[in-house]
Design goal:
Bound molecules: 4-nitrophenyl phosphate
Structural class: alpha/beta
CATH superfamily: Response regulator
Strand order of the largest sheet: 2-1-3-4
CATH class: Alpha Beta
Low-confidence stretches: none
CATH topology: Rossmann fold
Distance between the termini: 11 Å
Shape: globular
Order of helices and strands: EHEHHEHEHH
Mean pLDDT: 95
Largest sheet: 4 strands, parallel
Length: 153
């Protein structure tokens, strides 16, 4: 069983997109039984709209156009306790990695990686909060997830 936690700043755009797209991919590959999949935010004060926030509307529209239901997802915060509950913390950018390592602490910091490393890339998933380019973020996430699924055999 692979226990995967996707991590971004707010858990309303990039990491929930990765969570729901990866779940869709593993279902289509007939591998649902092999994975526990979740996502969370490093932003502790959740200054934008808080724990329990639904996904950002444009990301939802993009995923729902591909038949992926986003209605149930609510933002949650990454905690130190998650460190023992998951095997991998797949972060969207360098700052997520730094923050996730700080939250998880020394014991589980080694479980943090950037998602795009599974596509053989050193870059970040584009942050649509700033770019407003949701398709590029989707494409980045999808490349990382394809590599991830192939790597976890
Ligand atoms: P996410 O997007 O980390 O991909 O969920 C963001 C959400 C909120 C903010 C930035 C990025 N914010 O600055 O409030």
């Amino acid at each position: 069983m692979y226990r995967i936690m996707f991590v971004c700043l707010g858990n309303i755009c990039r990491s929930p997109m990765a969570e729901l797209l990866f779940l869709d991919m593993v279902k289509k590959a007939g591998r649902e039984d092999e994975f526990v999949i979740a996502s969370s935010a490093t932003a502790h004060d959740n200054v934008w709209n808080g724990v329990g926030a639904p996904m950002y509307s444009q990301i939802r529209a993009l995923l729902e156009s591909k038949g992926i239901d986003c209605a149930k997802k609510r933002a949650q915060v990454l905690t130190r306790e998650h460190g023992d509950e998951y095997d991998l913390f797949l972060c969207m950018d360098d700052s997520n990695v730094r923050n996730a390592k700080r939250i998880l602490g020394e014991k589980n910091a080694h479980k943090c990686k950037k998602l795009l490393s599974y596509a053989g890339e050193s870059g970040d998933v584009a942050d649509p909060w700033y770019t407003r380019d949701f398709q590029t973020s989707y494409d980045d996430v999808e490349r990382g997830l394809k590599g991830l699924l192939a790597a976890l055999r």
